Amino acid sequence: MRRQDIQLLTLARQGDAAARSKAGRRYLVGGDGFPRHVATGIEYLSHPSVRELPETACAIAESLPLQDLLELKQEEALHKAAAVGSPLAQFKLGVWMALTRSRVAAGQPWLETAAAAGHVEACQVMAAVEDARSDRALEALVESIKSSAAVDVVQVAVIAARQARDEGGLDQLVDCLRVALMVAPRLTHALSDLVVAAVLWAEREKHSLRGLAPDQIEASLELAVVRGDRDAACLLGRARCGLDSGTLTPARLTTSLNLRKGVALLLRAADAGRDDAWLALYATHADHRSSVSNPQMARFFLEKAAMAGQSEAQRKLGALILRASNSVMESEQAIAWLHAAANQGDAHAQRLLGSLVLPLQGNESVARAAIEQVRQGDPWLAVRLTLARDFGLTKLEALSVDPVEGRRPWGLLVGQNPFIAQARLSAPRAVPALTPEALQNLARAAAFFEQSRGDGNAFEGDLRRRSVRQRRVFERLNLSEDFFFATASSRSLEAFRLGPKWAFRARQPLALALAG
């Protein structure tokens, strides 16, 4: 380095504002005895002694291409330089505003000002925009600056797209991507990631994603899949299997269908943790018209989705098991899945659970008040009446059920009644809890019977003695049995125990649950 350059740096370090400004400019552009080192140049020009000077802003804005200014967070300097009359800064600012707002009009005042000052590229831009149709103005601007040294339009468009993504503007993101893909010589990883983000966003927001061609989206998804992007694999897999993603049809995401390739992509996505991909695999393999139809594989995929916590899968699996159940064990398994789905707010699952509970008459608050009266003389009977109201139990079931043995996470299992000889009346029955309060009351009932098991057995006696005590209490308090116990014939109860018979009675909500 020459002696005068060393002296300049010495003065700059000692606080000389003019020397600091001069050294900063030289570092930005390189040459004249200084190597080009942008970070050092920005450091010199960011010092409080020179930071607010208009010439400093002009030096930064004019020395660096637009993409570097944006990466280095120098938008403020760009605005300041444009405001004090730098044609080059005005040109860059006009291009940036046009790209970020996806319309030439947003940056046109700055471009016109730069063109009036004689800036060659600004003049070319304005001429191209004037010759183009109004709906092609942005494309004309982009085409006219493709070879500009001051603006790398692909990098700037990518930066604008990232800003749109971070600020929450999907339309703006899509427009920026359209511009970038228009002039990019090849699809880059950065562009691919942004396209995938836009598609996921459009899927979530039910957006049409207009502006991006299917072949561009497909190429972006494929490039992301190669790098192990599970979201891209799921999107492309669904599209190639002919499945919609939100409101996005397969034709919006891919140029051709291919079931086998789609299934392979969905398997990759599911294995990587996209649990909804298991449901897509189920839909593909459960369709008997599909070339990859396989009922056994379909059931496997549905179980995987259900175990992963997908409420739709839990509901469908529970409905399928319940429809074919011939034992109380299968009924319990089915209700457990339906209960899990209902806990996630699945309305179809809630309706199916409701179809397994016998209806009761009377006002709930009046019934609870009557139970409190009963509790004063017979707490065991009061607990049984509470369970009868919560779970729609018949009189026989309510007086014989064991809350300790029958309690389940999803509700109550009314076990085999040892006091009844008729098989239809004594067979066990699984009854789901339709409300959190029902589960809480069941937990309290189980705790009460567990703690007082010895005394309770001696006090309650067998079913005949319980029935006599219940009848006397009801007569004394003038209570109606219809208010607390459900009424059902042995044939009706059998329909709750056998899946095919239940499916016939609940065919409408069952069809909705399996189709939804």
TrEMBL record:
Q: What organism is recorded for this protein?
A: Acidovorax benzenivorans
Specify the protein name. Answer: TPR repeat
Parts of the chain that traverse the membrane: none
Origin: domain of life: Bacteria
